[in-house]
Design a protein that fits this description.
130 residues; three-stranded antiparallel beta sheet; alpha+beta
Length: 130
């Protein structure tokens, strides 16, 4: 805008920054000042995105072995591991736990590898939580 000067005004504790636009028109001082609030862009929270570890059912891995892996990798009790294994058996898949992406992928890989070492097609996958 020709004949205008931008002045930044930020006061500590003030809820938003205001930009004053002072027009050099020669009119009275109060009519020369226009105060317009600036929009403040707030960053999203820095919480890491969570991922689900999912047990995929298969017809070959023994139930007892699945329970053993769940207890070892995911620190589940015998009862919890049994419930997760039965849910995966009945529904085809079951969410085992929710972690940050790195932890979820590491645990899923370690649990899948435990089955591979024994020759079972045991599979754990990860996917982002909604």
């Amino acid at each position: 805008m020709p004949g205008a000067t931008n002045v930044q005004n930020s006061q500590p504790g003030f809820p938003y920054e205001a930009e004053r636009l002072v027009l050099m028109t020669g009119a009275s001082p109060m009519s020369d000042i226009i105060i317009a609030p600036k929009t403040r862009i707030q960053a999203k929270s820095d919480h890491p995105r969570l991922h689900k570890v999912i047990l995929v059912n298969d017809d070959y891995t023994p139930r007892e072995f699945v329970v053993t892996v769940l207890k070892a990798e995911f620190r589940m009790s015998e009862d919890q591991a049994q419930r997760v294994m039965i849910t995966a058996h009945r529904r085809g898949v079951c969410v085992v736990a929710v972690y940050t992406k790195d932890v979820a992928e590491a645990k899923a890989t370690a649990a899948t590898e435990a089955g591979r070492c024994r020759g079972y097609p045991l599979l754990f996958t990860t996917e982002p939580e909604e």
